[in-house]
Amino acid sequence: MCPNNFYRRIMDEASNIVKVKFKYIMSIYGLCSEATAVVMEYMSNGSLNNLLASHTLMWPKKFQMIHEVSMGMNFLHSMKPPLLHLNLKTSNVLLDDHLHVKISDFGLIHWEEGMSKKLFMEHLTARGNISYIPPETFTQCPDPPGTTFDVYSFGIVMWEILTQQKPYAGCSVTTVLLQVSQGRRPCTEMIPEEKPRECDPMISLMQKCWDQDSRKRPLFSDIVIKTEALSEVLKIPGPIHCHRNGNKEQTSDYSWLVPPIHKMTLPEMPDISSDDQHAPSGILSLLSKKDFRSFRQSVKREHVCTLFSGEKSLLHYTVVSGDASSVKHVLSLDAEVNCTTARGYTPLIIAVLYRLHDIMSLLLDHGASATQGDEDQWTALHFAAQNGDDRAVRLLLDKGAAADTQEKTGWMPLHLACQNGHEAVARLLLSRLSEEAVGQKEEKRGKTGLHLASAYGYLNIAKLLLTKGADPNVIDATDSTALHLSAGEGHNRVVRLLLNGGASTDSVDSKGYTALHLAALKGHTGICRQLLSNGASPDSRTLQGWTPIHLAALRGHEATMVQLESQGGCVNVKGENGWTPLHLACHQGQSEVVATLLAAKAEPNVTEDPWLCADRKGSTAERGRQDTAGFFWGHSSGCGSEIKNAAEQQNSSDQEDSEASLHHLHRDLNSSADVADSQSELILLLTALRAADLKIAPRKSKPCSGAAGLQSPPVTYMHICETEVFSMGVFLLRPGASMPLHDHPDMNGNLRSC
User: Does residue 627 sit within a domain?
Assistant: First the structure.
């Protein structure tokens, strides 16, 4: 395929993909014309593949991620025709600041008519997809890939999330192909034994997804229902709770919405067989075998003083065993109750991590410190609050734990409870905190408990905090209030609560954004309505000069834009570089938004700032013109009817304004079918323009090749499309003017059609 045709095909595909917008689908903003790159939404937490390898996720979070991936895939498959991913894997599932998933790289692999299975397999294996390819792809099945292809890949992704392992690790491509073709799948025994009972139906669903017979695989419309039900049962917000590899540099890249991450290398029982039960290794072996009677008979005072790997003591291992009688016996041998591992973990912290409440009480009764922290100054209360263990929190508070204790970056237990949605824990902590402590900020990002609860949408916790005197207008390190965070995340009820609690709608963050800007940017129309009814200004500007209508137009949120306009928002307001909402909508190819703006009397003749034109390079600078909104229509297709409507709305007597209108509109004609569609649109356009007597005067311009005969005074023109590979001039005649036709390969057909 020649470079020009290849570029056209990519542009055509990209223009379709850009229009795909959904909460769990990656937003595509455009292509780089000078490099083979796609501009996508920034995902601060990278890929799910990397996260699974570096962190241990709690079960509720695993279920939530599986459900979100299923919703994203169901959206793609619900399109007409279904948009097949054909490249679904954990490295193409990205994570935002809140660890919600977004599916990327969809629509980039295609099955083309006449393509051989061998060539298709080469495309897949070149991307490292061998583990995600269903068996029918490399067997004698003649059918092209369909929706069941993605369902199979989703089954493998489910297994990766549940096990946090790589499928077919260490196997060659040939081995994987043989195993899959014979019906073998990744081992379900690798799923941890300590799993919730809801994991069994999730495993059953996973096995149906990777069924050898593609006809037996479920549809994503059914998968979504099942994953939602299972996710709801375990809906205890659970971000990352432990760090595996101890790489602290890695943790600094994670956003404030991820809790401070710690390496919790808990002491595990070595599987040691020893005939000498009185040796240290033999003592540990008895604990490992849960032979607690023999352990208590064999353990001596000298064993209590022995340090094992990682500076773990016998008391640490005995706590992990979970046998309170053995712990009591070791304590009776004068074991140091506050001894620490190399990472600063006390036996009490270990008991909290394992939720061993009887052993916690036993340790506290023997003098365990409820305020002692680990190497990062995390106390037992921090861990209990993070895990949502209200029984442990109550016990620790009653034994002297300080509710306002801070770890080294300023996080209090309340921050963790608010972030993770543990209402019972938050209630206990608030009963022991002063009003000043309730509003305490963590140091790195300056978030209060109210910021965290609002960002995650925990309404009841936000209510508790406001009742205890939390200030809704406190700002964090980016000058954001709780209202900014809840509005941006779409938490309607939390927004209402904050507004009733006195939150200001005029507060701006470090970029000049109000809560209304963020709600408009994300398309949260209901929240915009609430904010506007509470005094938010629809024409407030960011530091770049953007109003909420600009941002709604940029992202294609038509309903939001209508709401803003109905409440007094100006559709012709200029932002950075003199761009109006219409400029942005055209630039992004938002045809529905363009139509809505024009219906709201948006002026299509507004030009961008003159100084910007002087900085442009290439043909635009050579022509020395200013760009109207119409210039940007060429970066997408499907705006012909909006152009026609704009022309119909022009007043023929307003020639000075009309002179700039729709100047140098661009259209990409990427295929013969598109050309046919464009011809009919041009006929409509010219008919409308002539009916409106819209006169577009010639300006300084590079002449069109082959159009010399059309430069008589009665003729005005509009340059519809100009790209590196195709140029077409459309000439508009005043009523009664003659139109000489010339045999020009690019123009003749369209002119004759008109």
Answer: yes
- Chain-centroid distance of CA 47 in Å reads 10
Are the CB atoms for 485 and 519 separated by under 8 Å? no
User: 528-567 burial by CB neighbour count: b if 16+ within 10 A, else e?
Assistant: bbbbbebebbbebbbeeebbbbbbbbbbbbbebbbbbbeb
Residue 199 and residue 59 in contact, taking contact as beta carbons nearer than 8 Å: yes
Banded model confidence at residue 34, pLDDT cuts 50, 70, 90: low
> Most distant CA pair in the chain: distance in Å?
113
Whether 140 maps to a domain, the answer reads yes
> How would you label 361-382 residue by residue, b for 16+ Cβ within 10 Å and e otherwise?
bbbbeeebbbebbbebebbbbb
Contact by Cβ (8 Å): 608, 583:
yes
Name 124's Cβ contacts closer than 8 Å, sequence gap at least 6.
86, 87, 109, 130, 133, 137
What is residue 39's three-state secondary structure?
strand
Answer whether residue 251 shows pLDDT above 60. Answer: no
Choose between 609 and 405: higher pLDDT.
405
Taking residues 400-429, what's their average pLDDT? 94
Containing H/E element for 730? Answer: strand 727-733
In the numeric block, which tokens belong to residue 324?
Answer: 């309170």
pLDDT tens per residue across span 363-373: 999 999 999 99
User: Residue 94: which H helix or E strand, with range?
Assistant: strand 93-95
Structure tokens at 272: 């040691």
3-state secondary structure of 55: strand
Which runs of consecutive H residues, i.e. helices, occur in 19-58?
A: 48-54
Tell me, yes or no, whether 370 lies in a domain: no
Q: What is the DSSP string of 489-546?
A: HT-HHHHHHHHHTT--SS---TTS--HHHHHHHHT-HHHHHHHHHTT--TT---TT--
Q: Which of 236, 265, 281 is the last residue of a domain?
A: 236
Counted domains in the chain? 2
The phi, psi pair for 272, rounded to 5°, reads -115, 130
Domain assignment of residue 86, yes or no: yes
pTM of the model: 0.59
**Predicted confidence (pLDDT) per residue in 601-658, tens digit:** 988 888 877 655 555 443 333 333 345 555 444 434 344 444 444 444 443 333 333 3
Look up the domain containing 652 and give its range.
Answer: 591-753
Helix (H, G, I), strand (E, B) or coil at 695: coil
The enclosing domain of 18 has a CATH number of: 1.10.510.10
Token pair, residue 289, equals: 């075998």
C-alpha–C-alpha distance, residues 348 and 354, integer Å: 10
Other beta carbons within 10 angstroms of residue 637's beta carbon come to 21
CB 315 within 8 A of CB 304: yes
Which span out of 1-10, 264-273, 317-326, 690-699 was modeled with the highest average pLDDT?
317-326
CB 358 within 8 A of CB 324: yes
CA within 13 Å, CB half, 606: 21
Kindly state the helix (H) or strand (E) to which residue 9 belongs, with its residue range.
helix 3-18
Q: What pLDDT is stored for residue 654 in this prediction?
A: 39
Grouping H, G, I as helix, E, B as strand and the rest as coil, residue 251 is helix
Q: Could you count the other beta carbons within 10 Å of the beta carbon of residue 182?
A: 9
Structure tokens belonging to residue 739: 């139109």
Q: In the listed set 236, 260, 280, which residue is the last one of a domain according to the structure?
A: 236
User: How many angstroms separate the CA atoms of 157 and 70, rounded?
Assistant: 10
66: confidence class by pLDDT, cuts 50, 70, 90? very high
Question: Counting Cβ atoms within 10 Å, is residue 201 exposed (0-12), middle (13-18) or buried (19+)?
Answer: middle
| CB-CB contact of 564 with 549 (8 Å) | yes
Query: Judging by DSSP bridges, how do beta strands 55-57 and 93-95 pair with one another?
Result: unpaired
For tokens 């963050």, what's the residue? 509
**pLDDT tier at 283, thresholds 50, 70, 90:** confident
Amino acid of residue 557: H
Cβ partners under 8 Å of residue 92, min gap 6: 47, 85, 103, 104, 105, 106
Q: What average pLDDT does the segment 689-716 reach?
A: 33
